[in-house]
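Reopening this one. Same input as before:
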Amino acid sequence: MAGISDNLEEFRKLSQIQYKDLIESLEEKYCWKCPMRTNSSEAFCREVDSWIRLTNAFEMGVKDHLKEMMIPLIVLKYWVLNYLKKG
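Same output, byte for byte:
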């Protein structure tokens, strides 16, 4: 089990670094999506956008790996739903 904990801790650290890099790459002071042109330091839109992008990239990476393993995505979705019901 220590291997799993070590892997998760390494992933957490890498995620933190990538998240910080994503936020820094969004240099605009004002978000073009905001109709009121709210300052991004008040709305935290860069942080939210980075979080969503990083989460999507993770999910896409997992799905790509599962495709390579020839595991049908519908089967995995079924097992995930059952797993979450028990949690």
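So the earlier flakiness isn't reproducible anymore. For the record, The two ends are 20 Å apart (CA to CA).
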